[in-house]
Every structure is written in structure tokens, then in C-alpha cells.
Amino acid sequence: ELNTFDSDKLVHSVPCAICRQTNGGCTAPPSTPPENLTGCMLGRACMENPAMFADVDRYFYSEETNPCENRRQVLEKYCCYLEQTYPRRCCDNDDRKTGRLPAPQVEMFTTGGCLICKEFYGEGDLIGNNESLNSSKSGSIQKEKITGCAIGRSLKPVRGLFFRLYNGKLFQRECDRLSRDMKIRNCGPGYILRKIMKTMPSELLDQPFVKTEDLTEEDVPVHVAPVNCRGGCT
Hints:
- The protein has helices at residues 45-48, 56-59, 71-85, 118-121, 148-155, 169-179, 189-198, 202-205.
- By secondary structure, the chain is mainly alpha-helical.
- 26% of the residues lie in helices and 0% in strands.
- The chain contains eight helices and no strands.
- The chain is elongated, with a radius of gyration of 22 Å.
């Protein structure tokens, strides 16, 4: 058992001699992955700081590159996923609500977007009668067709994507603000996330993820119980 706390000589491992934690307490990657590693359980860390897993494919599984190199790429791919999973409901006459999966399949009045979401989806072509189309008045509030729970559930996995970055809390504030905006809710969580991205500084969106071997102690948030914390936690 180690009785000294010398971060200059010790390295993060499983169990961790620096953090004095067994599995689950230290979030720093081990310097050498265990030979028998086939996977790991993702707990609260994946919600608080999902970017910490950005280098998993390369670091743990020896892939040449990771699927995404920055947060913009992550969010663009996630927008596409949301647009397929929770399609827009701003341009249909269906009274069913989108809440739980699978989302109801509805007939759209246009191949593009309404007056609100056409900034991302284009104007497209009208299909049939569209008296209830959300494009009648861009400032009008349409009957809710996508529930608040569906919007919140969609944004939750990426809320912490800018964890510990300067001005990163702007992303969470915009998630809260736009998810409550009833004028745009029926345009879908994919549209809402694209609107949120437009409020973020490009330098944050395009900042490359840090490679695991380049992480410093300051880059690695270590979650430990106060009784075990060496940093004077109370």
C-alpha cells in the first residue's frame, strides 16, 4: 500500500494510486490500458463531460483517427441523428404528439422547412393544402406536437460537451432557453440544437479535442469523496 502522495512519481492506474480510488473514482485514463480491457461502464461522467471520451477509439482501440475531431463535428452528427429520430412537426396536420420513441410517422406539407426553420432546411416545395402550416405567421405559437420531455431528453447527452471550457456555460444556458421556446419547439430538437450552435463562438466549436497523452492534471476532473480528497474539499 502506498503511504505517500507524490504525483510526480505516480501515474493514474486502476485502482488509482494518485486519487487513492478504486474503479469508478478516478476519471483519468490509465497510462497503459489493462491487457484484459474489453469495455467499461459509463456512469455520470458521460453526462457531465462527454468530451472526455472523444479519444477512446484511437487511444483504447488503436484506430487511426476518432470519429470526430472537434465539438462542431459531434453536434453536426448528433443533429442529423435527432432529425431522423424526432422529425419536425411544424408542417403537418396530425394531432398525435411526438414524445416517446418511436416518433409517429406523419405526412409533411412541404419538402423544406417552415418560415422558422427554413434557415437550415430550405423552403422546399409545398405538397397539398397547408392551412395549418407553421409558416403562416413566423411569430405565432403552434399547438405543441413535440413534448418538452422529448426536447429535454434529446439535448441532455450533449449539455456537458463544453465542460470546463471558457464561456462553455453559454451552451447550457442556450439549451435551457431555446428548449422552452414554444415558437420553435415543433421544428424539432435537431433544429433547436442547430440554433444553439449558432450562438456558440467558432473557436469553441472548432477547438480540437485534446489527445489523451497530452492531457495535464488540470485537464482531468477527478471525482472523489470529500473524505478522500487531497485538495481540501469540504
